[in-house]
Amino acid sequence: MGYWNWYPKPKRRRPADGIRAKTARGEFGATWWAGRWIAALKRLMDPARLSRGRSYARSGQVLNIDIRPGRVDARVQGSRMTPYTVSIRIKPLSPHAWNGVVKAMASQAAFAAKLLSGEMPQDIEKAFRKAGASLFPAARGDLDTECSCPDWANPCKHIAAVYFLLGERFDEDPFLLFRLRGRTREQILAALRAARAAGGSTRRAGKPSARKPRAAAEKPEPLTAEAFWEAAAEPDGLHFHAQAPEVDAAPVKRLGEPPFRIGPGGLAAWMERVYRSVTEEALRAAGGGEERSGGRAAGG
Asked: What is 239-299 written as a DSSP string?
C-alpha cells in the first residue's frame, strides 16, 4: 500500500437544513410555466449533465436561493467542507421591451385576471414575442452561470440543482420569472392597470356618443303599500347569459394562503373545488330556465 492511502477519501455532506425538492420522483415542474422553464434548459444544455443536479436538488444540497432582478445567487454543499457559490445571470429586458410586453398583455383582459390570481396566462409567450422578447431562455447566451467548484463543465451538478429548484419556486410564484427579467409583481400589475385605463380613456374620448337625446321620461307612478309586492312588467328584449369564471377562487388566490394548513393542497386548492362545484350547479340551474314572454329567465 502506498503511503498516500492513509488520507481519508472525502465524503459527500448531506446538510439537514438544505432545501429539499418537493418532487420526489419524475419530472420537475407542477405547472406548465415551470415545466417550460425546465424544457428550455434541456433544449439548450446537455440533458445528461443537467440530470446530475436532480439528486442534489432532492437531497437538500442547495442551502439557499436568492432571486433578484436578472440574477440568482445560491450556496450548494458539495463534497468539501465549504459550500460552493453559484450565480446565474439572465439578461433583464430593456424598458422599451417591457413597455411592448405590457401593451400586448393589456390588450387581453384575461391576462390581468390570471396574474392577479397567481396564475401565468397560457399564451403569455405571445405577448413577449410580439414585443420582440422572450420570457424563457431562448439561447445559451441568455444564461451566464458560474460556480466556485473545480468542475470545468457547465452546468455542473451544483448549478443544475439550482435550476431544478428554481422550477419549483416558479410553481409557487410565477412572478419570479418576471423578476428575473427585471420587473416585480407590483410593477407589472401597476403597469397593466395604467395601460388598460389609458386604453379605455382613449376609446371613450375618441368615439363620441351617437345616442340621441332622450325624450322626457314619464313621471313614475307613486309606490303604494298595496303594490309593493307586485311584480313589475318585464322589459322587452332582456336576456341573461350564465358563464363560468376564467379563474376559480380568484379572490382566495389573490389574498394568498393563510398561516395555517387546510386540507391537501391548501386553502386555494380546496376553494377551487368549491367554486367549481357551485359554478357547475349554477350553470345547470341557468340552463334549465324557461322562455317567458318579454324576455328570458336564464340562458346557458
From this structure: -------SSTTHHHHHH---SS--STTHHHHHHHHHHHHHHHHHHHHHHTPPEETTEES--
